[in-house]
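User: quick one, fold this
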Amino acid sequence: LQIDMIFFCSWRPSGRNHTPVKLWARADIFNTFNHTNFAAPNSLLGDGTTGQVFSTSVDQRRMQFGLRVHF
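Assistant:
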């Protein structure tokens, strides 16, 4: 299970009441809780790695931030 979150905020800067300026901020977080989901174990018989897990099935946590100015 992979949970993603988005935080969003918009506001008008103080002191500029006569100009229509608006700011928008956004933060996207992918794989928010960074819960490890392991991939299937190695199923090749005969080598020394049978039954071992070498990777995960989901990406690591990623974040991106954005700021927009509307005028």
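User: anything notable?
Assistant: The chain is about 0% helix and 35% strand.
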